[in-house]
């Protein structure tokens, strides 16, 4: 049994099929880097203790932007227009970029989600170790399936990969459920949104992965898998990051209001207020 | 009926026609990234509650800069100089970049316009949902027309696309009219400028779209459409962003002056002043 590290793509695509994937990749590059610019510039809008979550959002979308740049170039090189159809060239389309991307970004996304909850270190650390280990197992086994030659091998490794995937969702879901109860009403709504976005966006990955198993083969499967992963990445990274940013901003407002109530004549601007409190204690 | 996703361009252009479009695209790349550098660096010149509007201005022109870079490269690859004329190559000019760009930037421009008004969340949210839905409908139906093979199909989808377009302008116009009345005199002048810039710059898009319908065909139509869209993008993004920045700056000065009136011996620097008011109420 030989594993090839490069995904097999159909030898022929219509102009519409090729362009749909091409334009989806280009949109994704633009969206990822735009989100990065937003997060890095908007981090000062949230209190200091939430800024790391926003910075990590920026890092995640930057990594994804880089990988979509590579994926776009690989897609462009893998096909050439002949008459009115696109035929596969000598160059192979490299799907490994996605798995390299997930290997870096999934643990960071988990850190981001935990960071914005602002849990204590004693709770956060074991949680992150469990989640990161499961993430690496999920991506590693998923990749073996993705590059497998036979549909059966793909299904088996896909099933193996689903176990750590479900474990991550279970941990995050229960942890978020607990966190939700402790929060202010506005934060509660946003955290609930985050729970459902996690479930929904992460749910797209196995569906895209499953397409070839469902008998949707050839060009349609490839277009479905590529566009599906792209949509999932847009939801799981920039949209998720915006939700984290919103949670951080609402929490900052709540923190500032509390400081203002306690200390009437003080500068309540973000971190500074916090620092003031600290320095006068 | 088959839709091709790549705009058909004339097979022959004079050197002047090719260069006019080429140089317009290059100018646009420079202007977009220059504006991005300005907005990201100048955001600290406005009070904290207006900074998100300025950051979004920076994000919008960055996305547009990326797309003009792609459009420029696509234009360059689509023609080759043969003797004294430019002949179409095998490479197709990809006009979809514009629609991908608008799909991302138009909702952001609407958010930007609403953000600088600093409306309450209860007013802003339903307004943005209406505007964003209309924007997606407008761009989607416009794209179908843009890539249509027949001039009739183009006209039909263009007309369909005009309905959400007019709806957006109507909503923004009435909302801005209401906002204008509530504002200080200096802000009033700027908001009025914003209303007219919106109407004028957005008005260029349907004119550029209409050129092929008006019997202006072939090379002249292509040059007109490309240069027209470029001018419209320059007005609707960097120039609009500068107006938003000016509004934010004047509003910041007014907020600071109010704080200074109430508390003669205080630091009136930007956000802090605003926060001080909050904390002493």
TrEMBL record, chains A, B:
The chain crosses the membrane at residues 20-40, 52-69, 102-120, 127-144, 156-176, 196-221, 227-248. The record marks 112 as: Primary proton donor. Its main location: membrane. Contains one covalently linked retinal chromophore. Keywords: Chromophore, Membrane, Photoreceptor protein, Receptor, Retinal protein, Sensory transduction, Transmembrane, Transmembrane helix. The record marks 101 as: Primary proton acceptor. The modification N6-(retinylidene)lysine is found at residue 237. One of its GO terms (biological process) is phototransduction. The record marks 109 as: Responsible for spectral tuning. Residues 261-281 are annotated as: Disordered. This is Xanthorhodopsin.
């Amino acid at each position: 049994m030989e594993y090839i590290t490069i995904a097999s793509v159909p030898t022929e695509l219509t102009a519409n099929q090729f362009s749909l994937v091409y334009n989806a990749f280009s949109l994704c590059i633009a969206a990822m880097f735009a989100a990065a610019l937003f997060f890095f510039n908007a981090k000062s809008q949230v209190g200091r203790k939430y800024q790391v979550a926003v910075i990590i959002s920026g890092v995640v979308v930057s990594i994804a932007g880089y990988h979509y740049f590579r994926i776009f170039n690989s897609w462009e090189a893998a096909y050439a227009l002949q008459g009115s159809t696109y035929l596969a060239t000598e160059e192979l389309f490299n799907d490994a970029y996605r798995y390299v991307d997930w290997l870096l970004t999934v643990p960071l996304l988990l850190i981001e989600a935990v960071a914005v909850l602002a849990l204590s270190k004693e709770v956060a650390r074991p949680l992150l170790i469990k989640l990161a280990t499961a993430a690496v197992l999920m991506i590693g086994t998923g990749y073996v399936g993705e590059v497998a030659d036979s549909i059966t091998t793909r299904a088996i490794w896909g099933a193996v990969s689903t176990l750590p995937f479900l474990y991550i969702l279970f941990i995050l879901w229960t942890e978020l459920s607990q966190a939700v109860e402790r929060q202010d009403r506005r934060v509660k709504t946003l955290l609930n949104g985050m729970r459902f976005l996690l479930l929904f966006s992460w749910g797209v990955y196995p569906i895209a992965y499953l397409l070839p198993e469902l008998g949707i083969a050839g060009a349609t499967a490839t277009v479905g898998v590529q566009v599906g992963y792209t949509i999932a990445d847009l939801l799981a990274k920039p949209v998720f990051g915006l939700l984290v940013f919103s949670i951080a901003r609402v929490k900052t407002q709540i923190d500032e209001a509390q400081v203002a109530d306690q200390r009437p004549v003080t500068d309540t601007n973000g971190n500074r207020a916090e620092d003031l409190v600290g320095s006068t204690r």
